[in-house]
Amino acid sequence: MNVSPLPIFHSDFRVFQLGTPELGDTTYVLESGGEVIAIDPQRDLDRLDPVLHKVGGRVVAVFETHVHNDYVSGGPALARATGAPYLVPANAGVTVADGERADGAEISVGRVRLRALFTPGHTPHHMSYEIVAGDGVAGVFTGGSVLVGACGRTDLLGPELAEELTRWQYRSAQRIGKLLDSTVLGPTHGSGSFCSSNGVGGESWTTVERERRANPAFLAPDEDAFVRHHLSGRLDFPNYYQNMAGINRSGATAWIPAEPPRLTLQALLEAMRSSVVAVDGRDAVAFASGHLTGSVNVPLDNSFATYLGWVFPFGTRFAFVGLAPDEAKAAARQCARIGIDGIVGAAYDALVEWQHAEPLAAYGVTDAIGLRDAVARGATVLDVRQRMEWASGHVPGSLNVPVTELRERLADVPAGPVFVHCLSGIRAGTAASLLAAAGYDVVLVRDGFEAWSAGRFDVAWEEAA
């Protein structure tokens, strides 16, 4: 479990971080004088229970820094379970909240106070929270405002609001930057979160002093320069984000940990005929070597749920293949965090059962050298990275269709053989499986553009469309 104390050494309180590396987010727990608050909790509260037990004390409030776009909040469920009030930023439109926090509002927690600091930018209603000990601010829960070496994205609510929110983000950062150098900053978003702008490092906390020396919000000569920098070079963000705010405003139940129901091969095939997507969570090469016809490959790593929710429409039902029971449970946990509750089960023995009747489906696998030879023969090369990635360097003559758009753009891909690659091979595995399920002759490039660049093969650059 990714739990660690926030390095604020103060006799009046303690702060713990619970990291969710799969989404690049952090939940915070503060204890003072036997009273506890939680900030930005995730939906899988079973991970938080041991932290609360370790910290001890009574939960007196559950806070949100903002209405989250990247995950389903566990705040309402935690508040109900503990009897604590659920407190959100003013004007956030959260219908299940017990109270709203306006700028300057304070609540006592043991021997300290938590003071709301209005920091719009990541969202219009965004609120940071200062830990006030005595007469000084010892730390700030900054949510999606000032992050480690960056600031939260300001384009998630659409281009029409992006510039205005970016200007607010700059001003919010300046407000935080007026605090003492030693003030510790604990952001919710970090490395791996699409809510973060470029430049976020692997650290989960920082200080005002560090950010003054490294954060673009403080290095930019003025607000206009920050706006230009902050809105440039942005990668796309998952389209399931559009569903998160509505769920979080109305509140969601906690996820109850459980192994997905076991499916026989026959039950799986019947489910697939009823529009259930069979997701094979093995690595891309293992899937290419043998898989159930019609199944899709999304390797079970930290980005599993992100790409499952990005590639398929919200509300799609899924069944797992190629995973052990503990892996299927971990996969279901990832899915629940972003509101994917339609997991009909897992067919643990499906691959073995299938092989008793007929061979598994398969397609070819090659490496960067094989891709070079294919390019020399004039083969179709499909790059499934994002447009900005492709524009910054790609295999000459390659076609760019991001994996997240491939299901809707199959007609843009010529008949095979199609050599499919991404940066390292993970997204290419998903793309190759989608093409194979649609009847294409595909070849997976297992090591991707990283190996192509390392091999000093020709690279082309073009402006992104």
Question: How would you sum up this structure, described in words?
Answer:
It is built from 16 helices and 22 strands. With 465 residues, the chain is α/β, with parallel strands linked by helices. It has 3 domains: 3-250, 4-Layer Sandwich (Metallo-beta-lactamase, Chain A), CATH 3.60.15; 265-355, Rhodanese-like domain (Oxidized Rhodanese, domain 1, 3-Layer(aba) Sandwich); 364-454, Rhodanese-like domain (Oxidized Rhodanese, domain 1). Strands 1-2-3-4-5-6-7 form a 7-stranded mixed beta sheet. Strands 8-9-10-11-12-13 form a 6-stranded mixed beta sheet. The two termini are 42 Å apart. The model has no long low-confidence stretch (mean pLDDT 94).
Helix content: 25-40%
Percent of residues in β-strands: 15-25%
Q: How many E-type strands?
A: 22
The description of the largest β-sheet is: 7 strands, mixed
Which radius of gyration do the C-alpha atoms yield?
24 Å
Overall structural class, as computed from helix and strand content, comes to: alpha/beta
- Name the poorly predicted regions: none
